[in-house]
Amino acid sequence: MAKAKEADADAKEASAERPRFETLRAIFWAAVIALAIRSFVVEPFKIPSGSMIPTLLVGDYVLVNKFAYGVRLPFTGQLLIPVGTPQRGDVMVFRFPDDPSQDFIKRVIGLPGDKVEIRDRRLTINGKPVEDTPQGEYRYPAGDMTEPPSAERFLEKNPEGVEYTVLQWERETLAGRPEPTGPWIVPQGQYFMMGDNRDNSADSRRWRHTFVSPEAIKGKAFLIHWSWVIAPNDRAQRSFIGDLVFTLWRVVTFQVEEIRWHRIGHRVSGPADP
Predict the structure, then answer these.
(1) CA–CA distance, 133 with 120 (Å, rounded to integer)
(2) How far apart are CA 137 and CA 125, in angstroms?
(3) From CA 174, how far away is CA 170, in angstroms rounded?
(4) Which of 4-8, 68-72, 166-170 has the lowest mean pLDDT?
């Protein structure tokens, strides 16, 4: 009789442990799947600076296609399965060549073998000026820029026919400020990057290590999935966890200044909104 009771108690204990085990196993596999998706398929990325205005604003959150340029090992960036290569005009996320701990987002301007230079403030590729059409004045969003408050807006069309919007400050604003003009010859297998906010972008023109190597590439930005204004003047450098905690704190304390509903679902490619 006693043995039967002990066996019954053991069976109940095992039955109670089974749901816990199943829960832990479900959490484990959910985490593995989420990590795999983030590492190999798609990853969210927050726009922390104004270097890509007007295409991307501070506070935009974009989705990055990790599969666009091939499957790579996390952390090392080693290519496992080639799928495609960056094309001129792509908006690409990559590890900053001067500090690989930071992720940057810029536009691909120079491909391997290209000669890139700036002539009289016009982008020139392989000796030919890139077509640009003036589109009038652009007023910077509040908080994204303080000086100057506006810039000249241009529709740029690269040699492949890809169109996108860029900004340039007026000549008077740049008076006395030395601007790098090149030329830069892009090595084989590497890429020359520029921000769309041309006169306020730390990019290949100014980096110590000028070009982006294939191992540094993380993926192609393709969609804005969220956009809001939270502490626009804050420029503190934080880790991913630190930034997450900071953002959550601003949200729960009702310090969200604006949600840009009209930008949610907007594609990154093509000319920027008016």
Answers:
(1) 15
(2) 26
(3) 7
(4) 4-8
pLDDT tens, 239-273? 656 766 777 777 777 777 788 899 999 999 999 98
Helix (H) or strand (E) holding 24: helix 2-40
Cα dihedral: 242, 65, 215, 34 (round 10): 50
Catalytic residue among 15, 46, 106, 227: 106
Domain locations in the chain? Answer: 41-263
Q: Report residue 137 as tokens.
A: 């004045």
Indicate left, alpha or beta for 232 from its phi (over 0: left) and psi (-120 to 50: alpha).
Answer: alpha
- List, in order, residues 6 or more apart from 80 with CB less than 8 Å away: 70, 71, 72, 73
Residue 251 CA: distances (Å) to CA of 229, 259, 261? 11, 11, 16
115-119/103-110 β-pairing:
unpaired
Residue 51 is a catalytic residue? yes
CA distance 23 to 18: 9
Cα separation, 66 vs 43, in Å, equals: 7
* Distance from C-alpha of 63 to C-alpha of 134, rounded to nearest angstrom: 30
41-263 domain in CATH 2.10.109.10?
A: yes
Region of 34 please: left (phi>0), alpha (psi -120 to 50) or beta: alpha
C-alpha closest to that of 254 among 227, 231, 232, 225: 231
46 is catalytic: no
> Catalytic residue among 39, 46, 49, 51, which?
51
Task: Using the predicted structure, report yes or no on whether residue 237 has a pLDDT greater than 70.
Answer: no
